[in-house]
Amino acid sequence: MIGKISPFTRNVGVLALTSVLAAGCSTMPPDAGFGSVSGLAKSRLGMDAKLIRSGADGSALDQMIADKLAKELTADDAVQIALLNNRSLQATYWSIGIAQADLVQAGRLQNPSFGFKRTHAGADVGIERTLTFSLVSLLTAPLAKRIEGRRFEAIKLTVANQMLALAVQTRRAHIEAVAASQGLDYARQVSRSAEASAELSGRMAAVGNASQLDLAREQAFYAEAIGAVGRATRTALANREKLTRLMGLWGKNTAFTLPSRLPELPVSPVVAEDAEAIAMRDRLDIQAAKFEAAQTASSLGLAKTTRFINVLDLGYVRNSATDLPGTRGYEITLELPLFDWGTARVARAEASYMQSLNRVAQTAIDARSEARESYLAYRNAYDLAKHYRDTVIPLRKKISEETLLRYNGMLVSTFELLADSREQAAAVNSTIDALKEFWLAQADMEGALGGRLGGTPSNLEKGPTQ
What we know:
The protein has 466 residues and is an alpha+beta fold. The protein is 67% helix and 9% strand. It has eleven helices and four strands, in the order αααααββααααββαα.
């Protein structure tokens, strides 16, 4: 028999209804949580990152791309275009909006259910009305929202980390494209010189001033030079297309102009002896892993909280029947844990928590190792490029000058002069490779330490023409 509802019960119902209405007022922020990612792009890279939401945004982006491609494309410009125009990255940006929606949804309680029942027996008609809402949803809503909040923060950090990774990839692609273009230009110069040498050797052999061995050597060098041009052309095309893909360009925008040479080596290298500490402080993947671990810890707490009581509904009931006074009351629906005691949910949450802890630890170990490796590789690449610039090239230049003097004094033959040119070409190619490896090592170090460092190539003076 349903008795009269008490004032206490009525107050509880009013309080619960107020909580429901308050929780239902959660709204989506206008930037979908992207502001922090945009701020990281500005602070870590000095670049802009934004969601392309409308046709107006797309038109502004097209104009920005056109302005940057109208001049020689620098590494910074390439990275900026990629951050805004790479469609895969834009898709990644929108995952923040999905996580934000999940967070807002977590702050909203389950909709109440309304039941209506009508029965009749002869002339008697009975009507039953019920309004029910979930108490478990009400009690666990704050914890569920905290869980989604930590997940939201972790996703923002993950997206920002992917943004930084794309910036490093684009910078590397720009360096490789410029180096390949520079290598192709030099390969063509060598090929033209080899062609002239082969023709000269042919004329000298025709009048008996060169042996067939000397002629064969020059012809073989010319043939190899032609092959080198073919390989350099293929490499330059592949690297340029890779850069094009990362920037998300197509159509007429693919006809951009790259710098003719790599930037010159900096006066001094970046000093980052505390590379491990910098990585532990600034690496976003470490911060994201920590948030994920905190999220799983909260999930473990929620699983334990709802282990025995997973369904708890409170409802208001009002009955009326023909020729009988109406009755009012409340009903409670409780799930009985006869078959499922919640142990599997708790075990799964505990396993997920331990999994996340180990992931955090391994992420930190990897970050430390990558920081050490990248900094040592950077310093080694700097020393090697400096060695070629300050030692190898000056020596090759001196040898060429001395050989030319002896040739003019008729102390060495034409073929010794040509042999020296071949050796000098090999030294120049090695110098270009060493300079390229240095700039690639700097880009890798910036990525391993979680942000942009000083001494980047964008504002540095270009190196001399070989």
